[in-house]
Amino acid sequence: MFELIENTLQIISKISSSKCSYLLLVKTDGFKVLTILGAKPEEFDLVNDYLFNLKKTDRLDCNSVQLNDLTKTNSYNSCFIKDLILDNEKNQAVYILLFAEEANQFSNESINYIMAVLPFLSRQVKKWLDSNEFESSHQEVVINDNSQVLSEGNGLLNNWEENFNCLIETSPDLVFILDGEGKFLLINKSGLELLEYSPENLKGKHFTEFVDPEHFTKITNLFNEALIKKTTVNFEVSLLSKYEITIPLEINCRVIEKDENIIGMIGIGKNVGEKNRYEVELNKLRPKILEANRLIKVERTRAQQKKSLIDELNRLKQEFISNISHEFRTPLASIIGFSETIESDPNLPLEMKKEFNNVILNEGKRLAKLINNILNLSKLEGSGVTLKKDSFDAVKLLKEVAETNKDFASQKNITLTLENPEEEILIEADNERLYQAINALVNNAIKFTDEHGRVKIIANNLYREIEIIVSDTGIGIPEKDLTYIFQRFYRVSRPGSDIPGTGVGLVFVKQIVDLHKGLITVQSDVGNGTTFMVKLPKTSKIEKN
Predict the structure, then answer these.
(1) Are 157 and 14 part of one and the same domain?
(2) All residues at 6 or more sequence positions from 377 whose CB lies less than 8 Å from its CB, including other chains
(3) What is the maximum span of the chain, computed from C-alpha positions, in angstroms?
(4) CA-closest candidate to residue 331, choices 307, 361, 363
(5) What is the per-residue pLDDT for 182?
(6) What is the pLDDT of residues 470-495, one digit of tens each?
(7) In a 3-state reduction of DSSP, which class is residue 434?
(8) Which of 282, 346, 392, 404 has the fewest CB atoms within 10 Å around its CB?
(9) Phi and psi (nearest 5°) for 304?
(10) Are 60 and 45 in contact (CB under 8 A)?
(11) Can you tell me the distance from the alpha carbon of 417 to that of 439, in angstroms, rounded to the nearest whole number?
(12) What pTM did the predictor assign?
């Protein structure tokens, strides 16, 4: 097995025109030259030590290592290094190193041929390292000289040819040699199977006989260019098999020279049919992938929006809990405080007891109203309320609302007026619920209007609707809050303001209006007041029981 490794290394040296080549085993505790051709191991002590130290630090990059300055001879002007085996479990690696006298010897053309042989060499070295032959050997450094290899009397040349044939036969790709006229001299077994020919039928046939007619001119020009420039040619071509099957191939080939004369051409062809099929399928899938990515992006945006909405609702809920706790605590504190005062002081004057009782009564009513608002909102959102619709005069309802809020407006020295048409405006609605909604709008308008301000209720008799307007000259609502005021738990932030509120009043109003298939809108200007407009469908007559 070791002899096969040596012969393969010799083949690589020949096809790459290397003066020296060797295999280096690097472990965590040191390095070992496995075999070397054309030089002595000690010439590369500095190189090996340098590679060993790089490997220990995990900074060994074969594509960027420069070794020319580390050799003990100045005759090497170009070098090539490549890892054959990287075994992390055993903490070892095997590298192949090639040195040549000519600068830029290892160009892309030369490297293509080297890389074609390296997989075979790698497999052989791995088998050898894992075998008993390697374990039982003394692992002595084997020194070979190129003059010995080329000696006719030692039999190595014949082994070289046999192993070269063995090498091309193990390749899964098409490997061929053409003569000076472009006719086949040699083709490996994989190539014969690919073209569906026997060696006898293929011998003497010209390469261009197998080229798809569409590529004939292109291939002829490329071969002529290779013959003139004597460089490696890389191209894709479709060959036709014996039974007219089209085979797409990616071919690398170069001329063979002897005494500065071109005597033939050697090449390797890789079947890219499967690769092309994958590319076609990928092109078909690409629009679907783009569409899928677009849809995923849309869904991510939706999910983010939902998450933002949930986060905002949670925030509003926390604010609502905080506000409602404050709203509950304030009247309760008054009720408890004044009740304890009355209880603890039996000599309290009658007038003061009456005043305290009035405070307790008013705070109790305020607390009951707050609880009712929350319960009503909960019922409305849970579809737990059935409207008790009846036909009635909306103008009469507005007059009742104005009368109810008259005392509240007077306490703040606010002028409350009602402008309504003389005729009846009949609607079919739940009188109690609608009264609660309009009353909440008017109550809010008075609450958020400063002393000596004005609140106006207007009823407009439209063609099919009644328009109810509640306008005030109060503190107004900031523009940034207008979009959210009908959302549950939302409360307009008013720094420094002590006006109580829970953020459920306007939500309740909108729910009632929506249940009546109506519409509510708002306009506001900070410092100049707010106007709410409610439109409800009319009915033509009052139903009598």
Answers:
(1) yes
(2) 488, 504, 507, 508, 511
(3) 140
(4) 363
(5) 80
(6) 999 999 989 888 888 887 656 666 55
(7) helix
(8) 346
(9) -65, -40
(10) no
(11) 14
(12) 0.39
